[in-house]
Amino acid sequence: MANPNRLISDVSQHLPFGEKRDTRFYGMNIVSVEQFDRDDLDTIFAVAREMRLMVERVGSFDLLKGKVLANLFYESSTRTSSSFAAAIQRLGGSVLQINNVTFSSVSKGEVLEDTIRTMESYSDAIVLRHPEEGSAAIAAGIANKPIINAGDGPGEHPTQALLDMFTILEELGHINGLTITMLGDLKYGRTVHSLARLLALFDVKLHFVAPDILRMPSTLVEQLKARGMLPCEHVNFAEVLPETDVLYVTRVQRERFEDPSMYERVKGSYVITPETMKSAKERMIVIHPLPRVDEISMQFDNDPRAAYFRQMEYGLYVRMALLALVLGKA
Ligand code: NCD
Fold it and tell me: Among 254, 129, 269, which residue's Cα sits nearest to residue 188?
């Protein structure tokens, strides 16, 4: 049987301990993917791989014993909220969960700043999801404890982009040289905003496929071009599917539409089915941050290229790695 103490000391080679302690991440806010370089990604993914081994061998261990994570969610969430909760608990810590702010003092008119000050009095780090772009940066500006952005409206979702990239690496073995197609709601989808920025650190070919009113924001396209990327924009995805190595499908973000008739016009614009996937490569992956609505047919779920359920599990290891690096004690 595996000896948990031995395994913990193996893991600690990559964690912020002793001689090898990597203090880069200690106490850090995670607000945008812009803060990471290639070295940071190598560290995060190396720790995530160790986390996977530990979970497979011993399930949970006491690396963050006594640490308390606050999960503060002003928008709905299944995966992000529960994977952070699972991550801190598998590391021996505990979670304060505020899922439904209508049952908190937010419904009495409390401002974000005061709620953040409250939650940081009780916890060691705060995971925040909020409908307004820039809210995570505001929270990080006033908090003394690390803030982890779990989605600021249509802005960014940095931990999702890290787990998306980890998924690509684990499934396909490399990032450089890949053709990556992002499909669906590229205007409001924060996950694609973060992932496209993170991919600018690599040499990839990017295709953006969206209905005209849901195109990738032009400011983001310009930023990518300024970094030497040449993303190609399309409306029709059949023309790029055959060369695609990673198809990143997104949901049309209904809750961000001011005019519901516009949502009705674009919902169901693209649907992935076993039939449409016939022209795709045999070795490629389809990923999706989830939840899906109708953009990937359930008939496709058993195809080996459907990696979106495996992606959720990779997310647990990446979030364990981030918590270990941000909260890890000497
Ligand atoms: C995404 C989000 O909240 O941005 N979900 C997630 O975190 N896994 C995508 C979405 O809601 O469509």
Answer: 254
Angle between helices 112-122 and 135-142 (to 10 degrees): 50
How far apart CA 303 and CA 300 sit, in angstroms, is 6
Ligand 1 atom having least distance to the Cα of 150? 7
What the block records as the tokens of 104 is 């908190």
Which single residue is written with the structure tokens 């404890």? 145
Is 288 close to ligand 1, i.e. is its CB under 6 Å away?
no
The position carrying tokens 């049309």 is: 252
In angstroms, what is the span from residue 315 Cα to ligand 1's centroid? 13
* Separation of CA 188 and ligand 1 centre (Å): 11
Domains located in the chain, CATH noted: 4-157+315-327 (3.40.50.1370), 158-312 (3.40.50.1370)
Query: Using one digit for the tens of pLDDT, what is the confidence trace for 223-239?
Result: 999 999 999 999 999 99
Encoding tokens for residue 280? Answer: 């795709």
pTM score, two decimals? Answer: 0.93
Evaluate: CB of 256 within 6 angstroms of ligand 1.
no
Q: Is 163 in the pocket of ligand 1 (CB under 6 A)?
A: no
CA dihedral 148, 54, 308, 250 (to 10 degrees): 10
Q: Which ligand 1 atom is the nearest neighbour of the CA of 75?
A: 3
Best of 187, 290, 296, 310 for a ligand 1 pocket test (most atoms within 8 Å of beta carbon): 290
Q: For 134-184, what is each residue's pLDDT tens digit?
A: 999 999 999 999 999 999 999 999 999 999 999 999 999 999 999 999 999
Residues of the chain short of pLDDT 50, as ranges, are: 1-10, 16-19, 330
Question: And the tokens for 50?
Answer: 């160790």
Ligand 1 lined by 191 (C-beta under 6 Å): yes
